Q: What sequence folds into this?
């Protein structure tokens, strides 16, 4: 297997035998560098363990001398690594609600303000939901890894006991042979490597505990934002009720104005008729006066 850095926060884990490539995203460049260093470290430890196992198999032919080099492999599996692809998933913004026709310019600021506030809280809530889902998946993955590490820790302890027993047996057979001294040195070195691996696992467990605490904090933030969103929706409904009332008032006012204008037109028409009649009467009177 190989691990290649493709950018500052992204890398590829390739398994040539399985013909598979996993994409890994990291929160920062330092995390990516740390993972790459650990990858090389575990890969080198596995290679050394395999070489030592082959050397021991060449030195002795008894089945009890065979070791399990695969136990030194990292507990990280393709399934758990592949799961981090969720970090590259972007949160889609909520769809825009259909715009409603506004009967007047006075009601527009209320609707625009409430809609913008509602969209802002919905987008923030969706982002926190995505973060919460990723942290939950990481927590489940870390729990599975802890169980696997405990099993490997037990296997390491059994291997260490077996190696100590083998060292004792070899010392009982002959304490002066060069081959036995060489094997003893190799076994001690293997035990030291196992102890270092156990220490690394303990550090990893502490880091996972901190991530669990962070996940709980994100959950509380999510609950707070949910409450704020509900308050925003309540205020939005109140504003919509006020807007509807204003629309009704405006419509009623427009109807009253229209009725008043109609009455004025009717009155003007009547006045025009009366004025026209008075004008004819005046002209008639003037003609009568002239004729007399």
A:
């Amino acid at each position: 297997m190989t691990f290649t850095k493709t950018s500052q926060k992204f890398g590829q884990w390739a398994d040539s035998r399985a013909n598979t490539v996993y994409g890994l995203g990291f929160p920062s460049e330092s995390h990516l560098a740390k993972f790459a260093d650990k990858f090389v470290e575990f890969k080198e430890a596995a290679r050394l363990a395999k070489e030592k196992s082959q050397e021991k198999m060449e030195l002795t032919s008894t089945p009890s001398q065979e070791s399990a080099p695969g136990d030194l492999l990292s507990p990280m599996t393709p399934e758990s690594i592949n799961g981090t692809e969720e970090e590259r998933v972007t949160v889609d913004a909520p769809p825009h609600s259909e715009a409603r026709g506004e009967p007047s310019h006075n009601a527009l600021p209320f609707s625009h303000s409430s809609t913008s506030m509602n969209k802002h809280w919905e987008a923030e809530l969706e982002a926190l939901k995505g973060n919460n889902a990723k942290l939950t998946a990481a927590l489940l993955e870390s729990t599975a890894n802890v169980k696997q590490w405990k099993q490997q820790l037990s296997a390491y302890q059994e291997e260490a006991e077996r190696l100590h027993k083998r060292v004792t047996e070899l010392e009982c057979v002959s304490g002066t042979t060069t081959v036995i001294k060489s094997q003893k040195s190799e076994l001690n070195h293997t035990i030291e490597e196992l102890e270092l691996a156990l220490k690394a696992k303990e550090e990893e467990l502490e880091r996972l505990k901190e991530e669990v605490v962070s996940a709980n904090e994100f959950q509380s933030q999510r609950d707070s934002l949910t409450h704020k969103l509900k308050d925003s929706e309540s205020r939005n409904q109140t504003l919509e009720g006020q807007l509807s009332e204003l629309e009704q008032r405006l419509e009623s006012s427009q109807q009253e104005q229209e009725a008043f204008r109609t009455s004025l037109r009717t009155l003007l028409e009547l006045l025009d008729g009366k004025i026209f009649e008075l004008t004819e009467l005046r002209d008639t009177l003037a003609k009568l006066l002239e004729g007399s």
In short: Residues 178-291 form the longest helix (114 residues).
